[in-house]
Amino acid sequence: MVLFTLRKVAVLIGTMLGLAALTFIITNVAPGDPARLVAGPDATNDMVETIRREYGLDRPLIEQFLIYMGDLLTGDLGRSIVSTRSVMEELARYVPATLELVLVAMTLGILIGVPFGMLSAVYKDRFIDQVTRILSISGVALPAFWFGILLQLFFAVRLELLPVSGRLPLTALAPEPITHLLLVDTLLRGDFETFREALSHIILPAIVLSFPCLASILRVNRAEMIEVLQSDYIVAARAHGIDSRRIVMLYALKNALLPTIAMIGLRFGWMLGSTVLVETVFDWPGIGLYAVSSALASDFKPVVGVTLVIGFLFMITNMLVDLAYAWIDPRLRSAR
Amino acid sequence: MTALLSIENYHLDIPTFDGTLKVLDGINLSLAQGETLGIVGESGCGKTVLARSILGIGPQRARRTSGRMTFDSMPLDELNEAEWRRIRGVKISMIFQDPMTYLNPLLTVGRQLSDVLVAHARALSRPALSRQERRRRCSELLDQVQIRDPERVEASYPHQLSGGMRQRILIAMALAGEPKLLIADEPTTALDVTIQAQILDLLRDLVHRLGLTVVMISHDVGAIAAIAQRVAVMYAGVVVEQGATNDILTHPRHPYTQGLLGALPDIEGDHQSLEAIPGTIPNLIHPPSGCRFHPRCPRATAICTSDKPAMTSIGADHVVACHHALD
């Protein structure tokens, strides 16, 4: 298992380098002269050339690439042309917000999707199965922005139970960062008042973001459970007198979890890339909004930075999925 | 002698999209304590459904339409899940056809075996076994099925073991609860020929040593002959002939039994003529009228298409359901 993990980490590093190289190539193939963009429409050729030199855009491509990779390794993603702040600094502000939102949404998706998938498999075509079917179909079908606004209108405007948007109220002070995840930091600092505030702010966007993911986890887990429950080893376990709760919770669920985990990994990557709608509706200060506003301003460095962060997070998730697979299934451990 | 297991006029249907499969059509079997009964028949004749029904683990959609099963004076058809739990594994237990798929691939053998022990202790309302007791019992059970290195096997996952080894483990699991009745559903079919012989030897040895009552199901007449004192021949959901193994093998009276035995390769006989039974097994949604074998039977006459033959005694412990039984 240790060797397996090391091998997976090595593959991960290789893939990350590959992604970095790919982003470099794409930005250089993309049409448009970045130097001219920076200089603005009224700049003279001289000014453009100065900027070209300043940004190192006049050097050979190979050299530019080496500099780019070197900067990456030292954590330097360049500066945003619009805000002139370091991209790394800005990402450090926006990424944790998105990550927190995605993690909470994913937790919701798993905590609801897996048990309900299991239940609707055990009670196939009965009442609970019909209920979860409605839940999962609407999860896939409802557009996030519409569903988000609906929840805002009901819970925030009508019932006034939860805040409409944002990550914290203006009056609240974020705790001194440790993990940069508000929910974790407030707990670690013992600031329960702010924790409650942060929680009430994250609930609605997390529900909206988790809904499609919950739906697919539920459907995959249900389908797998139904299949596994008909397999020979389940028949054998029943014949040996093992009670049905243990059969469902251990003998069947462990086997059904494998494809479910794959789906969780996929959905995690999908969520990272699709938070922008939810972030817009709930005014959530995350990378989705940051990426879109940068792209609209043709601000390349932040776009590349966001691409790399999402890509890396996705790869790490995939590696974790692989490790979880091997941890659950002994056949994979010995096969490689 | 009262029967340990008795099956009377048992009918079982399985509804499907295309229509209702009449899988079992009036099965009558009875088995005394210590007896070994073999059930032979070709694939799809209802052997496995019958075997699983005895343990209440038949297909979920299967419906008993009439008849009953009694085990140790308990009506099996009327048990609820809680009552079944006090029977499965501890009173009636089962070994299966394909050891590759009947062990859970994600749990170690030791875990699965000790799970069975825990379940049995609970079923019999005995105090839970301690860790050491479970380990000791696991080793004992594996030793009983002639596994020499129990520690390694217990720590292994099923895919790390050979087919023969896995079948031994499944046998150990089936015997863990010291059941009164053991159902063996094609226990050697999925194994290599050499391993088949080993497993058969092991089974025969265990049956004699533990005095087990056994229902063994197979399409392999040789395997049946090695274990069973009595044989029931099944065709398309019907028992067509039943009697002492020797008797049936040497003097088959039902044309189907004769055909089945004729289809066996004979090492001493003429190698050219391996006789097949003409035709195919019938569609059980619309089974043939009268005797279900009549479309394939060389002796069939008008009465065979209209009347279902009754089971008639034709000798000491030998019954046959045929209008034109052979002499």
UniProtKB/TrEMBL annotation, chain A:
The name this protein goes by in its record: Peptide ABC transporter permease
GO CC field: plasma membrane
Membrane topology: Multi-pass membrane protein
CDD domains listed in its UniProt record: TM_PBP2 (cd06261)
UniProt keyword terms in alphabetical order: Cell membrane, Membrane, Transmembrane, Transmembrane helix, Transport
GO molecular function: dipeptide transmembrane transporter activity
Subcellular location(s) per record: Cell membrane
PANTHER family associated with the record: DIPEPTIDE TRANSPORT SYSTEM PERMEASE PROTEIN DPPB-RELATED
Domain ABC transmembrane type-1: 95-325
TM regions (residue ranges): 9-30, 101-122, 134-157, 198-218, 248-270, 303-328
Top-level division of the source organism's lineage: Bacteria
InterPro entries hit by this protein: BPD_transp_1_N, MetI-like, MetI-like_sf
Family: Belongs to the binding-protein-dependent transport system permease family.
UniProtKB/TrEMBL annotation, chain B:
Domain ABC transporter stretches: 5-261
Annotated GO biological process: peptide transport; transmembrane transport
InterPro entries referenced in this protein's UniProt entry, alphabetically: AAA+_ATPase, ABC_Ni/Peptide_Import, ABC_transporter-like_ATP-bd, ABC_transporter-like_CS, Oligopep_ABC_C, P-loop_NTPase
Primary location: membrane
GO CC annotations, alphabetized: plasma membrane
Listed SMART domains: AAA (SM00382)
Protein name as annotated: Dipeptide/oligopeptide/nickel ABC transporter ATP-binding protein
Native source species: Microvirga aerophila
High-level lineage: Bacteria, Pseudomonadati, Pseudomonadota, Alphaproteobacteria, Hyphomicrobiales
